[in-house]
Amino acid sequence: MSDLSALQGRWKVSSLEVAGSQMPAAMFPNAIVSVSGDVFESSGMGAVYRGKMALAQSGMRKTFSLSFEEGPEKGNVNHALYELDGDRWTFCLDMKGGPAPVGLVSTAANGYALETLTRIG
């Protein structure tokens, strides 16, 4: 099964770190990411974001890009490094349009978002 097939469904954001700072779960109690085909939608984090998702793999390195078509990021493309382990999806996202991170690490210096999601359906 391809990773895109495995990502289909709804995912709850269970952990979020931005620029090295852990965000309290109370800030995103209803944060959901849905994947249907190559379309993603993120809600419950202040706005609804929607667009296309494209996965790539080079050796063991797995990345994806998010091309935003709706929401505050419309017209932007962000890149991420990810790991998928059953019902747990972890990714590190460059929110400034740069290349995918080389590790799953968020620091004040790199400004990345590190998210862990758990499948809910």
What can you tell me about this protein's structure?
With about 120 residues, this protein is mainly beta. About 5% of the residues lie in helices and about 55% in strands. It has an eight-stranded antiparallel β-barrel. β1 and β2 (about 20) form a beta hairpin. The radius of gyration is 13 Å and the shape is globular. The two termini are about 15 Å apart.
Low-pLDDT residue spans: none
Tell me the number of structural domains: 1
> What class would the helix/strand composition place it in?
mainly beta
The residue fraction in helices comes out at: under 10%
Order of helices and strands: HEEEEEEEEE
How large, in whole angstroms, is the Cα Rg? 13 Å
Gross morphology is globular
In brief, what are we looking at here?
This protein is mainly β and 121 residues long.
Which SSEs are present, and which pair or pack?
Layout (H helix, E strand, L loop, with lengths): L2 H4 L2 E10 L2 E2 L9 E5 L2 E5 L5 E10 L2 E10 L6 E9 L2 E7 L18 E7 L2
Antiparallel strand pairs: 1-2, 1-3, 1-9, 3-4, 4-5, 5-6, 6-7, 7-8, 8-9
Protein traits:
eight-stranded antiparallel barrel, mainly beta, 9 strands, 121 residues
